[in-house]
């Protein structure tokens, strides 16, 4: 493009877990040194537009990989930064990488600008210094918002397949204007947008599955988990965990939850390799202080109910603790509704 010589473009097909396959193209010119890369999605749109709201509290969130399509907009309200779709093509970077790219773009032509408009040049330099503080991780927390009408953008969950405590994901139905911005003719955009309105029920179900979690504390950390994440949870934990002997049984209400109803007095008869007599332990970074803590997981059987997975995280450095219960069995054949009437204090 710059020297009009022949360069080399390489393509690589990449599968991103819990997202989709993408095509990465990279161009390199050995004559002038020009290099660039782009992420492509073969022109296919997702069923809905998507919006990610990520609260960046520490280096784990700061180093997340972000896939941005050519139609996506990035906003960081605390920094007063907005990256519109036209300024950057489809790309895959960390959050730090988007700060660095923005700084490089603003610094272009600063020498020329300094000669003709020194006031604007000085303001740009001051703003670049502010972005440099964000890029260095000196300013936290902040909110990273990724909004994409094509639905082809993605923010990595470093704790996958477990719930993402710091990122909220929502979908929406695209408008006629959004289809036009993505290159659709007016007639076709109007037709597709009207057909999308029939997907309202599907949209509600998808948003419901994404928002079936809870907020933690007074900040905006969101906990959610999809069915896909639940299915691979046990497999991933078992693969990377180390087994240790159970030191203290898990009890509540005079019931040992490490035993079934038939094993309450027969724990010594259970083989050592039985899952009910083992605790899986695996290292996990702490979301509060970034140090490595340990998640311990055990399989328990609740009398007259089913098997469950109890997961407990403890950080020895900052003292942060968290526990969660997952259903260990499959989905029942029928739905169930329980009504409990309280008539007295017993």
UniProtKB/TrEMBL annotation:
- Protein name stated in the entry: Zinc finger ZPR1-type domain-containing protein
| SMART domains linked to this entry | Zpr1
Q: Might you report a single GO cellular component term? A: nucleus
Annotated GO MF terms = zinc ion binding
Q: Which residues form the signal peptide?
A: none
Domain Zinc finger ZPR1-type residue range list:
1-157
Family assignment? Belongs to the ZPR1 family.
**Which NCBIfam families does the record cross-reference, listed alphabetically?**
ZPR1_znf (TIGR00310)
Keyword annotations for this protein?
A: Metal-binding, Zinc, Zinc-finger
Q: Which Pfam families match?
A: jr-ZPR1 (PF22794), Zn_ribbon_ZPR1 (PF03367)
């Amino acid at each position: 493009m710059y020297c009009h010589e022949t360069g080399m473009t390489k393509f690589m097909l990449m599968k991103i877990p819990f997202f989709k396959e993408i095509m990465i193209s990279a161009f390199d010119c050995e004559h002038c040194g020009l290099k660039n890369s782009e992420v492509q999605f073969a022109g296919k749109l997702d069923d809905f537009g998507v919006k990610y709201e990520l609260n960046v509290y520490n280096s784990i969130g700061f180093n997340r990989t972000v896939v941005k399509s050519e139609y996506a907009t990035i906003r960081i309200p605390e920094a007063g930064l907005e990256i519109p779709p036209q300024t950057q093509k489809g790309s895959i970077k960390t959050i730090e990488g988007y700060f660095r790219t923005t700084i490089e773009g603003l610094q272009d032509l600063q020498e020329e600008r300094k000669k003709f408009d020194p006031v604007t040049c000085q303001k740009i330099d001051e703003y670049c210094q502010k972005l440099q503080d964000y890029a260095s991780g000196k300013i936290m927390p902040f909110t990273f918002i990724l909004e994409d009408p094509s639905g082809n953008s993605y923010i990595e969950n470093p704790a996958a397949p477990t719930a993402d405590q710091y990122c909220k994901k929502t979908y929406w139905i695209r408008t006629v204007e959004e289809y036009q911005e993505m290159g659709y003719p007016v007639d076709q955009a109007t037709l597709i947008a009207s057909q999308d309105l029939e997907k309202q029920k599907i949209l509600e179900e998808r948003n419901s599955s994404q928002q079936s979690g809870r907020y933690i504390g007074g900040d905006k950390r969101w906990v959610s988990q999809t069915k896909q994440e639940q299915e691979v949870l046990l497999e991933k934990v078992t693969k990377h965990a180390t087994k240790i002997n159970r030191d203290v049984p898990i009890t509540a209400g005079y019931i040992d939850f490490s035993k079934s109803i038939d094993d309450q007095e027969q724990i010594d008869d259970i083989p050592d390799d039985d899952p009910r007599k083992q605790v899986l332990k695996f290292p996990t970074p702490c979301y509060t202080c970034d140090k490595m803590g340990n998640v311990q997981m055990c399989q328990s059987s609740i009398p007259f109910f089913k098997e469950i997975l109890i997961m407990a995280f403890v950080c020895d450095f900052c003292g942060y603790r968290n526990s969660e219960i997952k259903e260990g069995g499959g989905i029942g054949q029928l739905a169930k509704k329980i009504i409990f009437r309280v008539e007295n204090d017993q």
